[in-house]
Amino acid sequence: MLSFSCKKDLSCEGCRAVKNPPVAIAGANQVVTLPTDSITLDGSASNAPDGVISKWLWTKTSGPSCTIVNPEAAKTTVKNIVAGVYKFELKVTDQQGLSEYATITITVKLPADVKHQPCTDCNIAFVSDRDGDIEIYTCKADGSNIKRLTSSNGDDDQPDWSPDGTHIAFVSGRSGTYEVYTMNADGSNVVRRTFTGNWCNNPTWSPDGTRIAFSMTTNGSNNTNLWVVGATSGPSLLLFDGKGANLNPVWSPDGTKIAFARDTTVSENYDIYTIRPTGTELTEVSPVINHVDKEDFITPSWSPDGSKLAMVIRQTTGTYQYTTQIGITNADGSGVNAFPTGPMKTGTSTSWSADGTKIAYTSMTGSTKNIAWISADGSSSGIIVTNGWNANWQH
């Protein structure tokens, strides 16, 4: 018979025979709101039924960049958090060498005033060849005060305002392939952000201004995938490697989702999906309407409060011939309203005004491209600028 009269220091056969694993407790999931930029991870409630815990180890398993101050402490601080969803894993090990794991999810949100804080004199960035080259311009919301920002030998296209309105991300062919660049709002300080040697498109800022998502087509491949790069430094990182074409990413105002257009067959049959910025939780959110062959849902954009998605609904009627509508749905794809617009530029972007009352897009008058708008309820529309396309409204 084994004796258990000794202390549990594993020095006797009886104690060594009892090997229950430790219990890892990472604590309850948390939701914090910026500008809080640090959190506490506390695993001190973890315990070892047959002894003591000798080691703790915290690891970030998914989420944006951050700094775990002391990953080998039972209780530690995580600094430099940004908007997004983080998952951390706690590993505890007892003196028998047995380990157990627990996870915790931390959701970091933007404050309400950042989600929807209209500018008082919003500008529109757009693309035009009015001066002989394809360059980026800005204008007032009424089309006045047009200013040229770029001047390069390659095409400059697809501008996207930073959340604070001080910078613009865009793509340029000045290096021989389309790469992502940033510049100040007045066109100064142009900086190349990607060095892929492939074809980058559709840059979109994260709501906290620290990252830029974009789509990229690898040379010699039909696949177009989603990537992320730091707004000021760092390499390009793969976000979503999905079969087919994955285009037009756009970040939700709260930073928790990216909406994009996806065609899994590369047959011009796109639907709208969302994905977490961690590359997880892929969800289809195409409008809940009669889905017929060759009907595309493309170029999504979020309303300033994040409750709606605008998109182009395109129905193929012949070779490179379409009927087009602006669609507005709830964020889950329900409650669709579709408004006919007349001819649009192929692949036109959509962009909400800062007050959420209008959507800009590119209409066609013959061969002339126009920056047009339609009200969010479809009751009115108009032209902002002639000879312009790919508008992006400053917020």
Descriptive notes:
The protein has helices at 13-17, 112-115, and strands spanning 30-33, 38-42, 53-62, 67-68, 75-79, 84-94, 99-109, 123-128, 135-140, 147-148, 156-161, 167-172, 179-184, 191-192, 199-205, 211-217, 224-230, 237-240, 245-251, 258-263, 271-275, 283-284, 295-302, 308-318, 321-330, 337-340, 351-352, 358-365, 368-375, 381-386, 389-393. It contains two helices and 31 strands. It is mainly beta and 395 residues long. The N and C termini lie far apart (77 Å). Helix content is 2%, strand content 48%. The strands form eight sheets. It has a four-stranded mixed β-sheet with strand order 1-7-6-3, with no helix packed on it. A four-stranded antiparallel β-sheet has the order 10-9-8-31, with no helix packed on it. The protein has two domains: 13-109, Immunoglobulins (Immunoglobulin-like), CATH 2.60.40.10; 114-393, Neuraminidase (6 Propeller), CATH 2.120.10.
Beta-strand share of residues: over 45%
Percent of residues in helices: under 10%
Give the C-alpha Rg: 26 Å
CATH topology of the largest domain: Neuraminidase
Span from first to last CA?
77 Å
* Sequence of strands across the biggest β-sheet: 1-7-6-3
Report on the biggest sheet.
Answer: 4 strands, mixed
Based on helices, strands and strand pairing, what is the structural class? Answer: mainly beta
Q: Which outline best applies?
A: elongated
Question: Mean pLDDT, as a whole number?
Answer: 87
CATH architecture of the largest domain: 6 Propeller
Number of helices: 2
Tally of strands: 31
So, the CATH homologous superfamily of the largest domain? TolB, C-terminal domain
